Automatic annotation (TrEMBL):
Residues 152-284 form the GGDEF domain. The keyword Phosphoprotein does not apply. This is cyclic-guanylate-specific phosphodiesterase. It comes from Aquipseudomonas campi. Residues 293-547 form the EAL domain. InterPro entries: Cyclic-di-GMP_PDE-like, EAL_dom, EAL_sf, GGDEF_dom, Nucleotide_cyclase, Rev_trsase/Diguanyl_cyclase.
Length: 557
């Protein structure tokens, strides 16, 4: 009887008058007080029940509320035993066989089932570690508060911890849990009774802040929270500094829960772009920028499907022979409204969104196709240099996909060259070396792009299967103005040759630069002086008619 210590309030909906006296007589025989409320409809009785856990609806089929309208457990009252168990009800009672024991069992079962469902609902909406609401529970809470406040006097905070995953990996998940508990304690200490905090994910939190008394209260709390979370944490005797990025969005009368959470997320991303513990308040300019970025990402996905991308090729000239020895494949986007876009306008977005992997495979496939096309027109074989991002370099399907594409196009892999940046090569050098060696066994060779702009380790550089170093155009462009730049380029070329590497200078735009590079012993050059990046048909004409000799006077023919 423990489940019946606190009696349920029973609501009776029945068109037959005999149900009310029958139920009352059975309830009196139970020896406890069970209030029985009769009502013509559920709508008339619904205002009596703020808490569904305290009530039970007894109803005949004719009075049964529409699905979803009644939150109370429902027991169906029937004139005879049904052939099949009724759906969407807790239990049923048959009038002619309704005994005191049967009613007792029915009430106990309804109460216990209701308590179990309430418990499951609470667990579904509660973070098990901290006891605060989880994402589901917070979304429900936010929607209720927005409805209660009519979309005014509320601010939403979206907080993300910086470097939490690093601490979690270094100290272990149990220590990470203890760190999260400290974070929640600090958050609660900065909030008042009307505010709420929830855990949206591993290291993400939401704050619901009541701003009805003070419209600037959210910003004041955000400042206190960023200061509090910037203080060191002590976990297992270790002192940790974990920063945070907090986005604040103020509710508006015409916005629901989802737009408000999105606005707070955008503001949090803006805060994350700054250094250290900081917060950012959402504004429409931020929103327009984020939407523009999201729209461009969506358009880029469509561009990959609709074949709106194309490759242009910049020739690479050998300073010793005067012949074109190689090409660099450079992706372009023929945007329907904005015209031809260079890689700087969409490749960083592709890197950020993960589209760089399918984009990179498209570039490889198209470059191999064009290599086959050029050879089919009797042109000599040229090295095809393709920029390979670190994200694609990490893709487990790279080796198999490349091998398949090479076989499909019938291209000799020795003419394929991947350009990697210093940053990519120096990160996780063991994995990089293994992948490069596996690709090298196919015949592919590698060049190091933008040499001098990163932080190369010469030990790693000497151990990796790199054939060429490409000197960044920023160094080449400064040779005419500063002697220091000329000495730096000369030193880079000498260093590469001492490592038995060829050197390609990028961004060669005038004869003076070309002459200096020849004097320094540079092997190859590319830049506007030789040719800009050309579409495939223009490239074929350029290769047939040759390099313009007046610009390259003095080179061997």
């Amino acid at each position: 009887m423990s489940a019946l210590v606190e009696p349920l309030r029973l609501v009776l909906l029945a068109e037959q008058p005999e149900w009310a006296p029958l139920l009352r007589s059975r309830l009196e025989a139970l020896g406890s007080c069970y209030p029985l409320i009769t009502s013509p409809t559920w709508e008339a009785a619904s205002s009596l029940f703020d808490d569904p856990g305290t009530g039970l609806l007894l109803t005949t089929p004719a009075c049964l509320p529409e699905p979803g309208l009644c939150p109370l457990p429902i027991v169906l009252l029937l004139d005879s035993e049904p052939e099949q168990a009724p759906e969407d009800v807790y239990d049923w009672l048959v009038r002619d066989s309704l005994s005191v024991d049967m009613l007792r069992r029915c009430l106990r079962y309804a109460r216990e089932r209701s308590q179990l469902q309430n418990t499951l609902q609470r667990l579904a909406e509660q973070d098990p570690l901290t006891g605060i609401a989880n994402r589901l529970g917070f979304h429900t809470l936010l929607a209720a508060h927005l409805a209660e406040f009519h979309g005014r006097g509320l601010a939403l905070g979206h907080l993300d911890l910086d470097n939490f995953r690093h601490a979690n990996d270094a100290l272990g998940h149990q220590a990470g849990d203890r760190l999260i508990l400290q974070v929640v304690a600090r958050l609660k200490s900065q909030l008042e009774a009307g505010d709420r905090v929830a855990r949206l994910g591993s290291d993400e939190f939401a704050l619901l802040i009541d701003t009805r008394r003070d419209p600037q209260r959210a910003e004041k709390i955000a400042e206190r929270i960023t200061e509090a979370l910037a203080e060191p944490y002590w976990v297992d005797g270790e002192s940790l500094l974990i920063g945070c990025s907090l986005g604040i969005a103020h509710a508006r009368a015409d916005a629901g829960a989802d737009p408000l959470m999105w606005h707070a997320h955008i503001a949090m991303q803006q805060a994350k772009a700054s250094q250290g513990c900081t917060f950012h308040v959402f504004d429409e300019r931020t929103n327009r920028g984020a939407r523009s970025q999201a729209d461009l990402e969506s358009e880029l996905r469509r561009a990959l499907r609709r074949d709106e991308l194309e490759l242009h090729y910049q020739p690479r000239l050998c300073l010793q022979s005067g012949r074109i020895l190689g090409l660099e494949a450079l992706v372009r986007w023929q945007h329907p409204q904005r015209g031809l876009l260079g890689p700087d306008e969409f490749v960083p977005l592709a890197e950020e969104s993960g589209l760089i992997v399918p984009l990179g495979y498209w570039v490889i496939s198209r470059a191999l196709r064009d290599m086959q096309w050029l050879r089919g027109r009797g042109l000599p074989a040229l090295h095809m240099a393709i920029n390979l991002s670190f994200r694609q370099f990490q893709d487990s399907q790279l080796l198999a996909t490349l091998q398949r594409l090479i076989e499909e196009r019938g291209v000799d892999a020795q003419w394929l060259e991947f350009e990697l940046t210093e940053t990519a090569v120096m990160r996780r050098s063991d994995q990089v070396q293994q992948t490069m060696q596996a690709l090298g066994r196919l015949g592919v060779r590698f060049s190091l792009d933008d040499f001098g702009t990163g932080f190369s380790s010469f030990v790693h550089l000497n151990n990796l299967p790199i054939t060429l170093l490409k000197i960044d155009k920023s160094f080449v462009g400064g040779m005419g103005e500063r002697a220091e730049n000329r000495q730096l380029v000369r030193a880079m070329i000498n260093l590469a040759h001492n490592l038995h590497l060829e050197v390609v200078a990028e961004g060669v735009e005038n004869a003076e630069q070309l002459a200096l590079l020849r004097q320094f012993g540079c092997d190859q050059v590319q830049g506007y002086l030789i040719s800009k990046a050309l579409p495939l048909a223009d490239l074929a004409r350029f290769l047939v008619f040759g390099v313009r000799q007046p610009l390259l006077s003095g080179l061997p023919s």
